[in-house]
Amino acid sequence: MRLSLALPLLLFLPAPASAARLLNFSVELNGQKVLAAIDSDDGLADPGTIWSRLHQKMLTAENGPQFPIKVDDPLHCQLEGNIVIRATHTGKVLAEAKVSELQLVRTDAASNLWSLSPDAVVRTAQAAGLKALPTGEKGIEPRLLVLIGLSGVVLLIGIWVMARHGTPMGETHSSRNPSGTPQQ
Question: Which of 48, 111, 136, 158 could disulfide-link 130, Cβ–Cβ 3.0 to 4.6 Å?
Fold first, then answer.
């Protein structure tokens, strides 16, 4: 009986530590790197989930290249040419897309930080052969899945223990009279 009471406490233990995975994002235009960013995750995310971060990830413009920015719309930019977008980890390509145009957005006209527009994230994910999550939607956190699974196991063990012993928690067989009702 004590075991069934102790098992729920396992749910409050900290999750096991996992090593962070360093992710590099880059955008090349006609063979020249024009944007770059660094990110990290717990190492469990699939390439589609990693790619979907490009919507919120701020990419820093490299020195040198000039972006075709319209004076009347300085928060948007459309790159055109041979464009390659990559997500890598320790030099290994996790995902790569090749497109001929790319829509970028930024929040400040004076900033050199850009992100891909939500449509561009979905379109480049398709070009990379990935199923990126729609922007704003997050996948289920792996630790949450473990928590849900452990909760189910604890619930089943508790039900099994109560069914096996046939008594409500806190009552013992000796506190019942022969008719099955609790004694006063």
Answer: 48
The pLDDT value recorded for residue 153 is 81
Does this model's pTM top 0.90? My answer is no
Query: Is pLDDT at 104 greater than 80 in this prediction?
Result: yes
Residue 83 domain boundaries: 21-127
Instruction: Specify whether 121 is located in the same domain as 168.
Output: no
- Residue 52 sits in the same domain as residue 91: yes
Does 122 share its domain with 149? no
122 and 32 within one domain: yes
- Specify the number of domains making up the chain: 2
Do 35 and 120 fall into the same domain? Answer: yes
Q: For 106-132, what is each residue's pLDDT tens digit?
A: 898 888 899 998 889 999 999 999 875
pLDDT in tens, 9-42: 555 555 555 568 899 999 999 999 999 999 888 8
